[in-house]
Amino acid sequence: MTDYDAVIIGAGHNGLICASYLAKAGKHVMVIDGRTEPGGCASSREFTPGFNVSDCAQWLSQFDQSIVKDLDLKGAGLSLGKAKATISLQPDADHLILDGDQVSGAGVDPVDQAAYRDFREMVRSFAKLMTTLYRNRPPKLVEQNWTDRFTLMKLGLKLKMLSRERLRDLMRVVMINIYDVMNEHFSHPALKSTIALDAVTGTNMGPRSPNTVYSYLHRATGEHLGQTGTTQVIGGMGALGKALATTAEKHGATLKLGTAVSAIDKTGDRVTGVTLASGETVSAKIVISNADPTTTFRDLLGYHQMEAGMAKRTEHYRSRSGTAKLHLALSALPTFTGLTEAQLSERLVITPSMDSMETALNPMKYRELSSGHIFDISIPTVEDPGLAPVGEHMLTAIVHYVPFAPDIGWEAGKPRLLNQLLEELEAYAPGIGALVKASELVVPSDFEASHGMTGGNWHHGELSIDQALMMRPFPGSTQYATAVDGLYLCGAGAHPGGSIQGLPGRNAAKEILKRGAL
Amino acid sequence: MNQYDAIVIGAGHNGLTNGAYLAKAGLKVAVLERNPYIGGATVSRELHKGWWYSNCSYVSSLLRPEITRDLELPRHGLQVVSFGGGATFMRNGDHFGNYSDHDRHYREMARHSKRDANAYDRYAADTSLQTKLIRPYLMRTPPDPTSMKPRDLRDLLEFARSFMGLGEEKLLDTIKFWTASVGDYLHEYFETDVIKAHMAGSGIIGTALGVYSPGTAYVLLHHYMGDVDGNVGAWGFARGGMGAIADSLSKAFQSYGGEIICDANVDEIIVKNGKAAGVALKDGTEYKAPIVVSNLDPKRTFLDITNPADLPKDVLKKARNFKIRGSSGKLNIALDGLPVFNGLDPRNRLMAGDLHFSDSLERQERAYDDWKAGTWSKDPYLDMMIPSLTDPTMAPPGKHMMSVFVQYAPPKVEGREWTDEDKDGFEKSVIDQISNYSPNFRDLILHCETRTPREIEAEVGLTEGNIFMGELTFDQLLFNRPFPGYAQYRSPIKGMYMCSSGTHPGGGVMAAPGANAAREILADLKKSNTVPGGYADD
Amino acid sequence: MSDVSRDTMLLTTPFHSRVEAMCDLNDWGNWMGYTTPNAYFDVELEYFALRSTTGVFDLSPMNKYRVTGPDAQRYLDRLITRDVSKIGVNRVGYAIWCDDNGQVMDDGTIFRLGEQDYRICSYQRADDWLAWNKLGFDVTIENESEAVVGLAVQGPTSCTVLTLLGCHDLNQLKPFGIAHYTFEGQPLMVSRTGFTGDLGYEVWIPPESAETLWDQLFQVGHDYLIKPIGSYALELARIEAGFLQANVDFMPAEEVVRVGRTRSPFELGLSWLVDFSKPLFNGRSALLKEQANGSRYRFAMLDVEGNKPAEHSFILKGDKQVGTVTSAAWCPTAKANIAYAQIEMPYGAAGDELVAEIYYQRELHWTRLLAPCKVIDAPIFKSPKRWQTPAPPH
Fold first, then answer.
1. For C308, which of B117, B515, C166, C267 is 20 to 30 Å away at the CA?
2. Residue of chain A whose alpha carbon sits nearest to that of C100
3. ipTM for this prediction
4. Minimal Cα distance from A177: which residue of B?
5. B131-147 pLDDT per residue, tens
6. pTM of the complete model
């Protein structure tokens, strides 16, 4: 007799979703996490007294709404803000505004406006196809069975329903870079770079890097997953984590927070449970890991417990990142030149041109600090004042591109980078520096330490085509089952990958139930 | 009489090949050439008395043996001689040598890393698998995956079968290979920087991508899939320079009754009632033919010499969006003697191969960063050869001819046209780099021809100076080359065809596009096929 | 670097000066980048030295890897398919290793030199695969290929010869045992192993003592009719004795380009080396699947009628081609015509009667011969001396 049917390593959103679905199906599930707050990347933290920041992910834009419904997350208290426009800040304060299919400001001409609508329509048609793949386990291509064949048939049918020209477009663009696609569609530099930002967020790639169209489409699946655009979670991202935790518990799952799993136990030729940092062991019929593949296989299971080819594949799994976060506690609402107070609640981005994005990227490749950065800014306290003390505000921004470990070291590098980032912000928000009560810069290596994401990669592994779909995380361990008996994956390192989306957790649970593994 | 059955525009190797197969089928064919000499980018020129430069393409491996044999090119004077060797000279004074003998190659690699030397066998096997997959498709027309025609469906099915036959794991590894960066791909085999850098060069030559850009592993394959006498991956020199290939092709063409007209600068393709009717030259001369084949790159074909009114809008848009990027330049240098590099004995056989100075992926990537920023690489990746060590016809005895291919050079310098000062700066960065590894090099230079993308475009007509007539990224390969829906050599205008390296299977002196296009034209004319099929590669 | 001619030469082993002096035929081959003798004076006579007196074969180009450290045994247990713990200290085990797909990468011998101290001796190089296998294990792996050289000393009088060399009580050493001696102040290791199927030893020593070892060995062995052996003679002996050879009887899995050309242990008749009671080794799950679903091929030893060696022959069952021969020889001691073949399932079980399609040439005249053959279940050459302890004197 085992303690549980399944033990899930990691109370990130995918772990909790997986737990909820399994518990709902009557399975006896325990979720274990070393962090004291549930949610993983969907988490909040009081980084300075009174300021409760979404310390990792800050936007919700592609959360699968079928999960919200299946698990009644609204009933558990999940509340989303209004859909945000994206305002791309311009040095001359004539900002570019992208709202739904509309684009305005910054002198963008009607040709680009029309092209933007066409582009969005094209992207939607491609994203719809991807959703078919995303809501199913990734089909095997050669060793097909009826489940996979059915997915492929559905996909084939949808491909056939695209016009011939669209299909050709898809075959052409899916592996290329966003840089060329932008140049093909638009002439306005800021419009190009603003769209391109969505193709590189959370990655170590620049717009010229092939595969960025794929990562753009990955984000664009959001609309087909039922989300109406970029939103913030009321109460901060941690509120999503809490809602998911409440739900999992409501369905009967046990949560054990504050004690990390230190090892995945293997007895004979199968996984039989986990050992905690406390020394305690928990046995289960299966172990499901919400940790990234490198952490799961290298650190928790250990290379000595698997065949060598799998260890080799794990070593080759790439999860580099160039993404940092900047948190600022502000004594008052800052002023951004050319923006109204109301507009401060939108998504503000600083992403001057695609070429300058590339220039910002280059130093990172050589473990150097860049002289200019890309910002994706949220001032959540405008819509949700409760996150900061009355009258005070908070700014949190995703910042690209920051090396994992600069040659000068982070001890010297961090203060330098922090000052530089504030200076860069000052150009758009004069006086913001004077409002800063407290600040924190979280670099990729910090994310690795705090959230256990290898390389600080938000997607639990780079989302390039060779690590996507039926190749995620790598051959032999796809379809949520790994090459080790009894060990499953339910995190972003499994299909369909990262972002707060919930599908890996949901799909993994469905696959495990379907296989009758429990 | 200016009336022909078919007119081919451009006497490059593909134009001549195409013309030869049409003429062989009994058509009256003229190949028109803008320059006073033939060859396009497959040319040898005596720009310094006694020294012959292969001043564009400089080595041969991809030239399809089926074509060489079928058109009897050896009888028409072509002799391709294999060369061995090659080295990357390192900043620390050492080098990594590339020996053609397996044991010697092992020992040289083991000198740097025993593990890498052993891993090379695994690398060679895995890479061979990929060349085996692609080689059968070189002499074939790519199927259209959106088509329901029996021929396309049959070809697609066969294509799918060859991939499915790999099994799940190898299929996924294949997809990975096709989408990976050459840097990441090599990292799965090797630990030593200089070994990776030496091999990564093939992933970026002629390409506007860096060693860390996904898709460059395929470019590596493009340089590996050729062969000399069945030795897959081997490279050789055409004796007398690359012009010997064009010469032999022209003789083959003429032996079938074809006619070559030089100094014929085409202004426009004449279209009547939606059908190709001939061409008009800039000087007003007209040549009439119901078949017009363009060996110009897709951009020039559709944007320069075709009246936009004759083309559907989508083709104009596709032509404008076609990626053909200037990324390289070339120096051809006449030398008074043999330079010594890093103390390597000049008698060493390594000298006869391709020589490089980029000893790390990081240096190669930084060279690409310069290109992205719109300037030539300050520390460029060089692919340098001394063909006169193999072919005595290239330079006087004891003297040498050096060909230096330079990656990267932008099509425009910081957004503006190249100036002569830029060209001098570009030349200086190359000469300086070579001199850093060779103390006597500078003093040996007798003459240097420097070709930036500006010169290559102006003389050869390769848009932006792109040597492959279009980037070799997946969006422009196979059924996407040059554009989706037009990958079977037919243009949207009836009677007008494409046969350049801008079509499948792409650049390199392969002659396959010219041959494949001829096969399609003959099929449309309901003539019997004169183009040979590909050799089996099992 | 600057000496052009030397730079491209094949390497020679530390025994080379002596080998060269005895190589009357001047017939050389390339083994792993080393110049090695194909034959010294007469292949047939060299072979009979192995079977009747003592033959000496230079093993130096073999690849040797030392595996030490707290996890050495666990490391090897994951690497190879058999149970390493069953190999005692100072014992040797024959082993194969597979990739994750259960396809054989190479075979070799595992020498256990101490509690956590092993040496892998393999035909193929394995630096890369051994390094990948190191992940997760506290072991040190050292390539000792050049630090240790060896001679195979094989044949009925080999024990006597080596005893005269100073290897006292060698006759007490059991098959697959290891004994340690000192030779001219250097460590000399003797293992009762070999590739000939008869009584025989392998002698391992640092390269500095190679020439002295050779000289003394031939001096003390003179009266016992010691002879040097080239690779052709050894090839005959190994086929007769039933040993497989990488790149001849199977392709190392990592070097295979074409799909389906790799082989599993079952398909090579080596299932006795696969121990499923171990919970983990490379290829285990794939091999379990193969065991359940069946193999594609069967390794068969064929006793071919007639005296024409069935080299490179097709194997037929009726009119159907069911396999090909990988190694074949007329075996002079057993007086049998033996061939190894890979046969498609379900054919090739012991006792199955097949036909070998043999092509042979006499004075430029080719003849096609359909020779009936029968699958046998054990090697044709069986020498009781191989297993006797104490070892017989001759």
1. C267
2. A309
3. 0.93
4. B214
5. 888 888 899 999 998 88
6. 0.95
